[in-house]
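Figure 6 in text form: structure in, sequence out.
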């Protein structure tokens, strides 16, 4: 019936740990895939580097900002209610509803053929969707609260509250049942590395999970051969973001109030009681801004226009002139400049004058970026060098492919393009923030654990760059230094559209 594809997404894959475990011979299945397929050393993720949102390029071949949503959490100024779009918990069903109808994904392209997914909520149009949410939750919060007592129940404990290893094994059993129906598109997400890193940081459990996932992928590949599907099935192993350990948790809203007197709401981390997002806009009347957290290492700050009446004050992004002269009870402030003085914030990004984007990294580093009519992007350091780019790329308009090539080895690979794409989308915050290494932007925010010990969301290399591996029947092995996730999506779509030999 044509070519098929399986995408394995390892949520939160550390590029450095992947490389070290590969060299040590502890990922034999992935190594065998590399020997016969293509290994991409630096797969560039979406910004913010987020689960769900970061899936979009793989299933459409388009940048994630084209999806109509702007992260796992964002604030939609255009709505009368339900402005805080939060796809964590029971409300994850809203992601498929919120993404644009103008771009078809691989599930929709494959209709009426059978398609299937395991543990993904960016899968609009999929025929068979399975989520093992309870098992994922019991594994993530293993040893905490009620989950510790459920796990301790004799005999039944491992079934009532499976750990990460048991959860992934059980999910793969379900995936193999789907595989027997020869899905044209099969998406299997392994959420455990990300979950383990959030709660515990990078421990032996994290590397053990990588080894376990490697073996599960091996079981799946063996089954494709037994079923005679290996001649048409492309297999890709990708990730949505890397990971970064943290040991400090910033209460951003509390700090901003103390520093400026401005009051900001940050919204709930997760919704467990209802799938509805329907809070009225009037709920935010008492606040000057709304702070949205993504991955806990990145955030959007949406400011209310103090010059507009309450019913329209949230409707539009502030012009840079107002943002840089924002009135407070203590006097007028340059808000991006004030934010850049917080030593726990790394990048402070905002719209500048004349359509440019301003990037600050501390009070001593400011650059502007701009785009010409040909779609080339300029990086102009005003003072210092916030993205730490070599002088050879300063003040020169470069294409996206040139930026990819020239910044792959930098601390912020391809970040300039990702920043431009995000900041020019309607619905983005007035200021986009990322945290310094080791800092989480969400003090006492997470259910059951309070504070995370690992996260993602930002633009540093260990978060933005991840390995990709893909194997196409009849293809030649190779190694690529860099590739964007939307390019990976284009390769997947091209394979599906080609006739099998």
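Output sequence:
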């Amino acid at each position: 019936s044509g070519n098929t594809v399986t995408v394995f997404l390892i949520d939160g894959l550390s590029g450095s740990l992947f490389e070290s475990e590969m060299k040590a011979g502890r990922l034999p299945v992935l190594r065998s895939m590399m020997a016969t397929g293509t290994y991409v050393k630096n797969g560039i993720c979406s910004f913010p580097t987020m689960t769900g949102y970061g899936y979009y390029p793989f299933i459409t071949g388009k940048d994630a900002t084209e999806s109509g949503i702007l992260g796992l959490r964002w604030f939609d100024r255009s709505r009368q209610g339900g402005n805080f779009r939060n796809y964590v918990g029971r409300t994850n069903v809203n992601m498929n509803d919120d993404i644009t109808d103008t771009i078809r994904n691989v599930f929709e392209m494959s209709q009426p053929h059978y398609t299937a997914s395991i543990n993904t909520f960016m899968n609009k149009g999929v025929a068979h969707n399975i989520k093992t949410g309870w098992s994922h939750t019991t594994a993530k919060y293993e040893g905490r609260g009620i989950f510790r007592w459920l796990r301790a129940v004799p005999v039944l404990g491992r079934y009532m509250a499976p750990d990460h290893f048991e959860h992934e094994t059980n999910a793969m059993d379900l995936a193999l049942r789907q595989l027997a129906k020869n899905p044209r598109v099969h998406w299997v997400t392994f959420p455990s590395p990300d979950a383990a890193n959030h709660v515990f940081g990078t421990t032996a459990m994290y590397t053990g999970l990588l080894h376990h996932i490697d073996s599960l992928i091996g079981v799946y590949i063996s089954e494709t051969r037994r079923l005679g599907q290996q001649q048409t099935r492309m297999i890709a192993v990708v990730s949505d973001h890397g990971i970064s350990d943290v040991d400090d948790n910033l209460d951003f809203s509390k700090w901003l109030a103390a520093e400026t007197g401005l009051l900001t709401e940050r919204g709930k981390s997760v919704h467990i009681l209802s799938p509805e997002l329907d809070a009225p806009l009037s709920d935010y009347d008492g606040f000057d801004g709304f702070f949205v957290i993504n991955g806990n290492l990145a955030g959007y700050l949406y400011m209310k226009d103090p010059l507009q009446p309450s019913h329209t004050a949230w409707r539009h992004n502030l012009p840079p002139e107002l943002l840089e002269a924002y009135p407070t009870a203590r006097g007028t402030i340059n808000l991006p400049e004030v934010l850049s003085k917080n030593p726990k914030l790394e990048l402070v990004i905002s719209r500048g004058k004349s359509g440019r984007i301003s990037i600050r990294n501390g009070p001593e580093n400011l650059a502007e970026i701009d785009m010409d009519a040909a779609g080339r992007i300029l990086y102009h350091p005003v003072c210092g060098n916030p993205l730490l780019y070599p002088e050879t790329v300063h003040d020169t308009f470069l294409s996206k492919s040139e930026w990819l090539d020239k910044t792959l080895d930098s601390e912020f690979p391809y970040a300039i393009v990702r920043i431009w794409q995000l900041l020019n989308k309607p619905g983005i915050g007035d200021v986009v923030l990322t945290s310094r290494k080791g800092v989480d932007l969400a003090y006492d925010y997470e259910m059951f654990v309070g504070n995370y010990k690992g996260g993602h969301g930002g633009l540093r290399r260990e978060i933005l760059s991840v390995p990709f591996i893909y194997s196409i029947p009849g293809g030649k092995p190779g190694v690529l230094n860099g590739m964007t996730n939307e390019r990976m999506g284009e390769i997947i779509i091209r394979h599906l559209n080609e006739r099998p030999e």
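Caption detail: Residues 67 and 99 are 5 Å apart (CA to CA).
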